[in-house]
Amino acid sequence: MGGNYEKSIYNQLMEVIARLDVMENSLHNEKREHKKDVDQLNKKTDSLTQENRTLKEDNACLRSITNNDSSNTSLLPSTDQKCNVHIIRYLHKNTGETGNPWSGEMASLLCGMNKHRKDKGYSLL
User: Fold this and answer.
1) Residue 88 burial by CB count (10 A; 0-12/13-18/19+): exposed, middle or buried?
2) What does R_g of the chain's alpha carbons equal in angstroms?
């Protein structure tokens, strides 16, 4: 009888070990999936951080353009060539209404040109 008891305990031990192996594999798979999720979320966070930085720069550019708008001066818009603000507004409107990416890129280019001109201390007038 002692042999059957030992055999039964051994079989139970083997079943427990098999179930633990299954659970361990399941945990490893879940861990792998969670790591993938975390990596994707980190990439998305980096992307959104960069987009936020770009939007802040564009906002600062547009704010400085607005502060230098020809409506704030005594010069006519056609003679006040400081900022291209009217063109930039038109381009942003075009992007919003049509979804054309080129007009947004052109507005960014003009903002960049204005910033470069200001940084270098150049004057158009």
Assistant:
1) buried
2) 32
Q: pLDDT tens digit string along 50-103?
A: 989 888 888 877 777 666 555 555 554 444 455 677 788 888 888 888 887 888
Write the pLDDT tens digit of every residue in 36-49.
999 999 999 999 99
3-state secondary structure of 82: coil
Q: Are 84 and 99 in contact (CB under 8 A)?
A: no
Dmax over Cα atoms in the chain, in whole Å?
A: 111
15-23 long-range contacts, CB within 8 A, separation 24+: none
Q: What is the pTM of this model?
A: 0.41
Determine the residue type at 110. Answer: L
**Which has the closest alpha carbon to 63: 43, 83, 79, 80?**
83
* SS3 category, 125: coil
